[in-house]
Amino acid sequence: MGKNIKKAVLIAMILLLLFPLFEFKIRHNMVDFEVCYKAGKRFIKGEILYQLEDGHYQFKYPPFYSFIVTPISIFPLYFAKLIWYYLILIFIFFIFYFSYTLIPGNEKKWEVLIIPTLLILAKFYGRELDLGQANAFLVFLILTSIYYTIKGKEKIAGISLGLASAVKPYALIFFPYFLFRKKFKIFFISSVFFIFALLFPSIRYGWQGNIELLKKWQYTLSLSTPKLFNSQDNVSFFGFFSKLIFQDRIDLIYISSLISIITFFVLFILIARRKINRITFLLDCSILLIYIPLFSPLGWDYIFLTSTLGIMLLIYKINQFSIPFRYFLILNFIMIGATLYDIMGRQLYSKFMQLSILTINFLIIIIYLAILRIKNSD
């Protein structure tokens, strides 16, 4: 009982210490959460979720996600933000907990793996909190699925992956992988859940109303997405080709991006065909997680928090690389973590992002993970 009381007191103290950050900074922002908060209220009232008059701050999630946020939407905005702020912190905690726990080996030390990973990715997690985004929720669900896959509890793994795909369709990238791995139960359960999530809003809007919702969701994405390719924060292949090569040639941007996506996926499959064990399975999953912001037309820089597992694996296995490769990897880590707006200033930081250097940084991370994948499957 004494230990439980100490844990409860410690948790309460941590929550209290983190409250000033919310009160004096975060609560004044969280603009992405406000979009979802409004969508939750619209779902409750049966109103149209996707409205063009919302301008830049349009709801772009699947209709089912508006249902997920309805319990928070019943609160006044201040308390809703506070709840979501602490939920993001909980998701972040479990992202690091799962990433650390999943890595096998008794010799690992949490401070050697978690602290450097947190420093490298701190700016992405900070941005996640500042916007009130749902990427930490997404990654938490995917890692939960990976965790229970390893534990052999495929039903929970399938439900977690299905729910992740209902939060953001990014998680669909794992569906063919589990099918490829002959994890048919996970593939079937997650697919059924995703279909259920697409149909569920019919309860509130009716069958025809739900079809119209899905059409409006698709229309909203198709209308707004191409305009955002040139955004400095877009780190996807679409943003890469738009900013550096083709600019306003949308057709060439799509073609080049799709060729890149297909090429990388084929290379991934060729690597994934090698011998599978726990560490190689984790390496496969870590590559797929980093693919998410690269493959998505709306891949923003802060979505690279999906790389938590991959970076932790690279730190854990860094001695498998030769000394020059280690130093180059560490330099790449420093570039990712230290290129901060507050340090570089507006002009230099904008130039850095417009040159898509961050995209290149994470392509390097993928190459290192692929090398590890080959080394550990021989």
Offer a quick outline of the entry:
The chain is mostly helical and 378 residues long. The chain has 19 helices and no strands.
Description:
The protein is mainly alpha-helical and 378 residues long. The chain has two domains: 20-223, no CATH class; 225-378, no CATH class. Helices cover 74% and strands 0% of the residues. It is built from 19 helices and no strands. The N and C termini lie far apart (49 Å).
List the helices and strands and how they pair.
Elements: H1 2-24, H2 31-45, H3 63-68, H4 70-73, H5 77-102, H6 110-131, H7 135-150, H8 154-167, H9 174-180, H10 184-199, H11 202-224, H12 237-246, H13 250-272, H14 278-295, H15 308-316, H16 323-338, H17 341-344, H18 346-354, H19 357-375
Keywords:
378 residues, single chain, 0% strand, 2 domains, mainly alpha, 19 helices
Structural class by sheet pairing and helices: mainly alpha
**Strand-residue fraction?**
under 5%
Please give the alpha-carbon distance between the first and last residues. 49 Å
- What kind of sheet is the major sheet? none
**Multimerization status:** single chain
**Which parts are unreliable, with pLDDT below 50 for 5 consecutive residues or more?**
none
Query: How much helix, percentage-wise, in residues?
Result: over 70%
Following the backbone from N to C, one meets helices and strands in this order, namely HHHHHHHHHHHHHHHHHHH
Q: How many beta-strand segments?
A: 0
Count, helices: 19
Q: For the residues shown, what is the average pLDDT?
A: 90
Shape: globular
Number of domains: 2
Q: Provide the gyration radius in Å.
A: 21 Å
